[in-house]
TrEMBL record:
Organism: Clostridium colicanis DSM 13634
Family from the record: Belongs to the carbamate kinase family.
InterPro entries linked: AceGlu_kinase-like_sf, Asp/Glu/Uridylate_kinase, Carb_kinase
The keyword Kinase belongs to this UniProt entry's keyword annotation: yes
Protein name in the entry: Carbamate kinase
GO biological process, one term: L-arginine deiminase pathway
Pathway the protein takes part in: Metabolic intermediate metabolism; carbamoyl phosphate degradation; CO(2) and NH(3) from carbamoyl phosphate: step 1/1
Upper taxonomic lineage: Bacteria, Bacillati, Bacillota, Clostridia, Eubacteriales
Gene3D superfamilies: Acetylglutamate kinase-like
Keyword Kinase recorded: yes
Length: 309
């Protein structure tokens, strides 16, 4: 049966540098076009960890060597990462579809995600980005208004907040394209974080988690399925331990219990489980799936992965 699916691509779908990304998007496109061939409506969301780090580093280096004067705000770095990843992905998806005789238009929507200026995450930035600085350099940057924290004895790094997405500004555009049978790439890198100021949207110094942004997108476009594709085939409890157990299914109550028991690592599996719970709880008949990129089709057919319902 035809489903409306939001696919959230993790780091392994894009690689960690330019040449890896160029190769990775080919494999990724095969997995996605398999779903288009089945007749599903698909929106693709993706992360941007290495890419936004690279862009930020490049500008920091240019500022340090005084090639350019002003540093680039984090919201702009996210926008650049969306553009660059979207370019590679839409190009590869188009080619894969043409190779299979499918004529489905594909585009990337520069997506802004509204965050709450009072989100507690702004008071406690946790996401390290960019290069390492000495104590002296860090003190100078702190004077300029940056937030830096000591990172595991390796030096100082900028940290940014990772607030929760509240709304997606371009949701109606994304829906209209989907409704007309097109393939859409949206909320790349968690979306460009913006704060509402009357009619103005002001870029925020933050990076939104792509798992939460994908869940929000799936809710707003009334999707049936949130599919989080990552580097493991299934979710486990006692992950990495002797009594590790891979799960085929997870109810909301079980998921909450396992969160409390600390089975899911913060920063990797925990946001996926929390994002899945949010989506499943937001309407009846909404399901989430966590599996490997290459197993997306099998997972949607119920043959593998972990289903959260
Ligand atoms: P992505 O780039 O797809 O967001 P992450 O590395 O952030 O990937 O998260 C996926 C990783 O989470 C897996 O590769 C695995 O190493 C780790 N992980 C942590 N806890 C668990 C768990 N309980 N079950 C399965 N994987 C887990
Ligand atoms: Mg992750």
């Amino acid at each position: 049966m035809k489903k409306r699916i939001v696919i959230a691509l993790g780091g392994n779908a894009l690689g960690s540098n330019l040449s890896e990304q160029m190769k990775a998007v080919k494999t990724t496109s095969k997995a996605i076009v398999d779903l288009i061939e089945e007749g599903h409506e698909v929106v693709v969301a993706h992360g941007n960890g290495p890419q936004v780090g690279m862009i930020n580093l490049a500008f920091e280096a240019a500022v340090r060597s005084e090639v350019i004067k002003d540093n680039i705000p984090m919201s702009v770095c996210v926008a650049m990462s969306q553009g660059y990843i979207g370019y590679d992905l839409q190009n590869a998806l188009r080619e894969e579809m043409l190779n299979r005789g499918l004529n489905v238009p594909v585009s990337s929507i520069i997506s802004q995600v509204v965050v709450d200026k009072n989100d507690p995450a702004f008071k406690n930035p946790t996401k390290p980005i960019g290069s390492f600085y000495s104590k002296k350099e860090a003190e100078e940057m702190i004077q300029k208004g940056y937030i830096l924290k000591e990172d595991a004895g390796r030096g100082y790094r900028r940290v940014v907040a990772s607030p929760k997405p509240v709304d997606i500004v371009e949701k109606e555009t994304i829906k209209a394209l989907l409704n007309s049978g097109q393939l859409v790439i949206a909320v790349g890198g968690g979306g460009i974080p913006v704060i509402k100021d009357g009619n103005h949207l002001k870029g925020a110094n933050a990076v939104v988690d792509k798992d939460f942004a994908s869940s929000k997108l799936a809710q707003l476009i009334d999707a049936d399925f949130l599919v989080i594709l990552t580097a493991v085939e299934k979710v486990a409890i006692n992950f990495g331990k002797e009594n590790e157990m891979w799960l085929d299914e997870l109810t909301i109550d079980e998921a909450k219990k396992y969160i409390e028991q600390g089975h899911f690592a913060p920063g990797s599996m925990l946001p996926k489980i929390e994002a899945a719970i949010e989506f499943v709880n937001s309407g009846s008949n909404r399901k989430a799936l966590i599996t490997l990129l290459e197993k997306a089709k099998c997972g949607i057919e119920g043959k593998t992965g972990t289903i959260i319902k």
